[in-house]
Fold these 4 entries.
Entry 1:
Amino acid sequence: MKPPTHSQRGDNNQILCVTECAPPRAQQSPQSKLAGNGEQPSLWRALLWPGTATLRMVKPRPHCGEDVNRPGLGAFTFVELLVVVAVLALGAILLVPAMARTQLDSRSARCLNNHGQLARAWLMYASDNNDKLATSYASVSSSQPSWAPGLLDWDLTPDNTNTVLLTDPRYSILATYFGKDARLFKCPADQYVSGIQRTRGWKERIRSISQNVYAGNGSSGFDPGYALVRKLTGLVNPKPAETWISIDEHGDSINDGIFFAPYSTGWIDLPAHYHDGGAGVAFADGHTEMHRWQGSVLKFPAPLSMFISVPPVTNDPDILWLRFRTPRQPGVN
């Protein structure tokens, strides 16, 4: 007669193990409990040593003499569930700053990429035009194309959204050198629009980047200490690797596509600091950097503060940094 292979229930409602019941608890080692013999491993062990156990919500095999109707068998305790919730909450708290930093770094990288592509277009234009630098007029005219024509403001002026000004060679002399991609003129961290622009459904304006007015064949500046350089070979004070050609401009300052370097005691146009207090900058040798401001630029924390002018300052580190990297007259430090 074949021996029975199933459990039978006695009169006292207990499991009577015949052949395949699990060994008594006293005979089981901790290793055997984690080896998959039907005993559910401890949640504490799974949290502290993840590689030693796999949690499975399965009904355990009965032990000899064990009542299968006993409540709580194979379930997590309330305390263990609270531990899981606490661990998940702590992980979320730790991940949020890291994710924010990742997003910031991603925007900074894209911003520098935009500056870099525009700098290469600027250099290719000079190479194709006998070292002549790209013009930087403020006006919009097909008879006088410029680096980045158009005038931005916080109103509903069409230039705020007209990407044709940046991609059509009739207006933008660099358009054929950067694949006519208007997004290169926009810092990804600059998503500011005014209230009236937002009511019209605008998400952003088309430009965040401006060109050094002293490094181009166009408008002249206001400070006689600077030198207006019209050819690449004219960049001698400072050298191309130290001469900035494009910069993120503050949203309340940007209008035309050119940036006037500051006086020794104050700003004419104001740089932006969309990247944790920094701005993307490109140089005449083609390299880029994210410069962190340390002085007066940080007094205007965000656009829509209606920037007019910064009060006079002395020995401002931000002004000194930009003046040193702007073309200057021979002998001017």
Entry 2:
Amino acid sequence: MLAVLVREDAEIYGLGLLELRNDFVFKSFFTNERNNGLLLHFVNSIVGGRIRSLQVIDPTNKQEHRADKLSVLDLRATTDRGEWINIELQLQHHLAFKERVLYYWAKTYTSQSHSSDPYTKLRKAIQIVITDFELLPSRRIHSTFQLRETSSGDLFTDHLEVHTLQLGKQGDKPVNSMNDLEKWLLFFKGDQKAKEEAAMESSAFEQAWEEIRKLSMDPETVGLAISREKALRDQISRLHDAENRGLEKGMEKGLEKGYKNRTIEMVLKLHQKSMPLPFIAEVTDLSVEEVQTIIEERNYFA
């Protein structure tokens, strides 16, 4: 089930904080121009500190969000090197999720050029996926994937890079012994006390703490975050209802098919024992014509 993501520990602390796991809050937090330094700090904690600057491509548009509460809220940015980055936050697993990750990486990669541009203009595309479910069996919170030769490990090209961050695998490590990425993940899935401890560790996390507090006190942002969560909950509920209806229909069809197969099997066994067709029809509750058809079809395909 989808967790409650709008407010955290309001009954304990008095002031509930908005959750960065709410993707509207996540995008509002990181795409605000005054927080560009925080976005750079977060991305560098994932890719190893090689990026000097970031430019957000599609900042949060509250007006558009009001009109379409189920729009995809990925965060896209370009780096000083011309690299393209797409950051996706997902709370709910589905069967084709890994294929979806590759699809969005491909869209990011191909969207940088036009049909008339030479391939040399293409730059690295980095897909960062944050999940609140177990995507990989590894106990690692951060995994990096590239396109490499399986035996030698030689890199085919550095243009494909996928990072996965699995929330909930941080463990009980003390905050003062965490690296920057582990501290950032506290802001996605950690209690308020842990966030306060992280805020005392560096100016970046102190700024992040203050920013999440500001967003949590903005009635418009809170209202849009709630509407986003409600829309996602309703969507998940509709999907579950559809799955249950499909399962029920599937069971009915399965039972019907099983009964039909058993009837055919009985007709053929009785026929092998040289029972007359009227007798077989009476036992199986079929017409003589239906019994004859079953026998003829079996003889044809034998």
Entry 3:
Amino acid sequence: MKTVSVIIPYYNRPKKLDRCIRSVQNQSYKAIEIIVVDDASSLPPNALDDTIRYFRSDKNLGPGPSRNIGMQHATGTYISFLDCDDYWGPDFLETTHRLHLQFPDIVMAYSNGQLIDTNNQVLGIRRGKVFDSKTIIPTIFEEGRPWGTGGCLWKAEAVKLCSWQSFAAWEDYAFDTDVALSNNTIVGSPQLLVYYDASGADKISNLSNDTVKNGKNQAAAYILKQLSKSHLNEDEYIKKSAKRLLFSHCIEVAKNGNCTPETRKNLINLAQELCHLTTAFVVRILFRLPKKQQLQGFRFLRKSIT
């Protein structure tokens, strides 16, 4: 049996961490290494047994950097990242591991999941439907991210070449993109084997709208830069998806009304790399116009991509 390293970022949720760990220990697949990374919590975890590897940061870094710490210590052939407020059904690892054996060229196998409330009652299927995606890109641009972070089983040799970014939002999109640059092939199970906690004031994603918007903008800029120099950009369908993401990002930057000279320069360069020189010139002109005209222009550019 190949070992799976399960990396759990922890922050001030001792009861939910207990639930999360129990779900990992109760897996039908038993070759498991559990790594808990404490992100400088003020509420320490409850007693952990000796089989669990525990690491604590001196300062609060966020879930992305905490996962990086876990990866540094992971020894498994496979890696899964499970947030401490989420948990698995007992057959999650066995099911996703079987998919890796059936499709040895994939970089990730995933399971669909369900949302739960404070009483562990199911609220519904995550994202409202079951997905059957075969590639990371352009799926994450066209459909959002069908798999949750805790629903993936990755090949360790691939993800250890990448790092989680510290963006306040969309750091998972950025990570998926980095992995896809070397292997874009995945497979999913229709079974609902992951439970995502959608409730509580302690939810890890409870951030202000401005923080989320800034995080998404940072992540989108990072993703576009990575794609612009990738062989994936040679695929016409992926290239169209990247262009749509570019102009969606331009729209968000225009909405915020705080486009710095550096941001403007980067977006013009990306327009030239992903589109062509004429489009880059149009982007340059649009950023000189009033906000209303900027938004109209970027929305027209996005709509024109067919």
Entry 4:
Amino acid sequence: MFGAYVDPGVVAQLVQNPDFIRLGGERREATVFFSDLVGFTDLSEKLKDQPELMVEVVNAYLDETSECLLNHGAYVDKYIGDAVMAAFGVPQPLPDHALAACRAALDAQRLIAGINARYAVMVGVQLAMRIGLNTGELIVGNVGSSRKKNYTVMGDTVNLASRLEGANKVFGTGILLGDEAGRRAFFPLARLRVKGKLEAIEVHTLLGIPECPPVIENSSPLIALVTMPTSTGASPRRRQLCPGPTRSCLVT
């Protein structure tokens, strides 16, 4: 029961080191995951007289998404309405946390089909999910007051992951990766400047995992995961989603 309110990884840290509960933080590298439920506004409107059913649908989505993230090694930080915030690589280190986040994002997208199969006819709304992933240095630790604390992640890496989730609306994509995550992944999509940042960054989208990813000498597991073979079956190559010069745009 207690584990439903406090992440087991955080509990383990507290058992090993009681000082862990003190307010404070440290710098770590991790990959941040933000997701949002597309169609939630329509769902809320259609079910405004059936709040129990609306909560049931949202809880089903949150439950399956959380289980997916946990299975890939994530720390589920918080729920913000229908949004999910998670981090890979904290509190325990996770090798290839960007790769784990990419796998989790793809699996989470697939789960929406099951939610729609169970509820779409009943509620009259087809749901979808937008996901933003960003890798970088961040602050991780206990934030709050003497009465209530939250183990969380903060910083520019986190803010950008949230912005990338929303920027999916501009590109019509389901998953957007930030520059650093994209260097460990694939498919440069555009250069994007989000509100609050002066410089544009290169963003990437994630389409899927080849059934039999090619083995590339001296490549990392993440590159091997996302490098696609050519249509003719010749040597593997990186396939750019938007041929030609990379586009630039501003998302506010």
